[in-house]
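Just wondering, does anyone understand what follows?

——
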Amino acid sequence: MEQTFDDKVKSSPLPVVVDFWAPWCAPCKMMKPAIASVMQEFEGQFLLIEVNTDEDQELTQGFNIKSIPTLIGYNQGKEVARRVGGMSARDLRAFFLAVQKGEAYTGIDSQSRTFRLVATAILLFLAFNKGFNWIVLVMAIGMLLFATYDKLPLKNIQKWLKERKGGTF
């Protein structure tokens, strides 16, 4: 089945979303109606492939699925997004839109990012206002990372460290 799966994903003219699920998985059951609703909204714009992890364990292991539900999005045959865990209908819609655009799904919408960046600016102001406060500065740096973690090149840093150390990270 894995060869057929690869053929479906790579040859599809449409973006593909693969749903790894199991019948006993409560979050999977809760997401089914939301996935159906999003698929109806994007009718004819996506190919949805559902993989029952209990029935197709070889494929599941081949994709290194450690937890379900897991959604993997492909655009032009390449993986562009992966999300583990339950998602709301709003988050599913955002995931599908990201896959359609060929972008990574971050889970952070622009409104949340803006709020976090404003909070960072306020904390920085408080850290340097009337003296210097290390604790508030550390909080500001943490908030900045929280606002931008999806844009940081962490995978490249991890790869560089692995090559440098010659071991695992």
In short: The chain has two domains: 2-101, 110-165. The chain has a mean pLDDT of 85.
